[in-house]
Amino acid sequence: MSAHRVTRESKRAVVARRLWLAVSLITLAIPLSGCGTGALWDKFLAKDDTFVDEPADKLYNEGLFLLNQKKDPKGAAKKFEEVDREHPYSDWARKSLLMSAFAYYQAADYDDCIGSATRYVTLHPGSPDAAYAQYLIASSQYDQIPDVSRDQDRTQKAIAALDEVVRKYPDSEYATKAKAKLQAARDQLAGKEMSVGRYYMQQRDYTAAINRFKTVVTQYQTTREVEEALYRLTEAYMAIGIVGEAQTAAAVLGHNFPDSRWYKDAYNLVKSGGVEPSENQGSWISRAFKKMGLG
User: Fold this and answer.
1) Which of 122, 182, 183, 246 is deepest in the core (most CB within 10 A)?
2) Is there a contact between 227 and 262 (Cβ–Cβ < 8 Å)?
3) Residues 6 or more apart from 201 whose CB is under 8 A from it?
4) Report field, pTM of the whole predicted structure over 0.90
5) Could you tell me which CATH class the domain 56-125 is placed in?
6) 3-state percent helix, strand, coil for the chain, nearest multiple of 5
7) Smallest Cα–Cα separation from 234: which of 295, 277, 195?
8) How far apart, in whole angstroms, are the C-alpha atoms of residue 12 and residue 110?
């Protein structure tokens, strides 16, 4: 055994002996010090009642006051979270969890709203308010939809969340509201496709443009963008000489949207090529609309 190792072990032994001696002295001092020490120990061992949980209903009402009177939704959310934290198994906790989600939504703190509402749906799936919690999740996603010039990942998430409301709670008032927002969100995705398609048209990349307009016609037929998409298909097909498809696009446009200004433009375009709008039943355009029951 090396001298260094012996030295280290000796030091440890010294430290251990000193600790033992200190503990022994404290133990011996207790009976010698009389009642004063006993009172000191009683105080040391007594439960600290300085911090007492506030009643759940008081915290909840304070949250309502901050939300409604003080117009402080973030402060209200924190107060509702106190109820959930201090009284986790109470009915007040369930109510407060939903109210914290609502308060965060009012504060446009969408991530925290989604977090609280998701927790509510997970813990209380059978609650009458679960539909509203799910709607708050969807609305938080919907309110963050960007303009058509940007990536539409958030729009896809909004559509998925809104679909969940309709699927899980079809008879609730929130399903009706979700359907209205779904239509607007799908318009947004169709608008994105149209924006890119127009860009390709300007670049004379007609095949790429047709693919974008085709997406609108096949996936977003109920959106406001479909009329222009059919016109742009007429325009693109005429440009590359596929006159039959141009005629079909114009004919389907006229059949489904006879008063559309886009139909007037499509009609004049095919007429300038010496033909009339005429539907080819075998065209993908015709099949797409028949599949949706629109043709």
Assistant:
1) 246
2) yes
3) 209, 232, 235, 236
4) no
5) mainly alpha
6) 75, 0, 25
7) 277
8) 57
Question: Using CB atoms within 10 A of its CB, is residue 203 exposed (0-12), middle (13-18) or buried (19+)?
Answer: exposed
Task: For residue 113, give the nearest of 83, 152, 121, 174 by alpha carbon.
Answer: 121
| CA 260 vs CA 5, 220, 254, 265, 266: distances in Å | 95, 17, 8, 9, 10
Instruction: Compute the distance between CA of residue 136 and CA of residue 117 in angstroms, rounded to an integer.
Output: 7
Unique residue bearing structure tokens 């959310």: 77
Q: Report CA-CA distances (Å) from 119 to 4, 75, 249.
A: 59, 20, 48
Judge whether residue 184 has pLDDT over 50: yes
Alpha carbons 218 and 93: distance in angstroms, whole number: 47
- CB-based contact 294:256 (threshold 8 Å): yes
Site of tokens 């002996």: 17
Percentage of the chain lying above the pLDDT 90 cut? 78
d(CA 285, CA 233): 10
Show me where the domains of the chain are located.
56-125, 204-291
